[in-house]
Amino acid sequence: MPTPHNTAKKGEIAKTVLMPGDPLRAKFIAETFLDDIKLVNSVRNMLAYTGKYQGKEVTIMGSGMGIPSIGIYSYELYNFYDVDRIIRIGSAGSVCPDLKLFDIVIAQGASTNSNWIKQYNLPENSTYSAISSYEALSSAVESAKRHNFRFKVGQVLSGDNFYNDPQEVWSKWAAMGILCLEMESYGLFATAAQANKEALAILTISDSLLTHEETTAEERQTSFTNMMKVALDCIK
Question: Is pTM, for the whole model, over 0.70?
Answer without folding.
Answer: yes
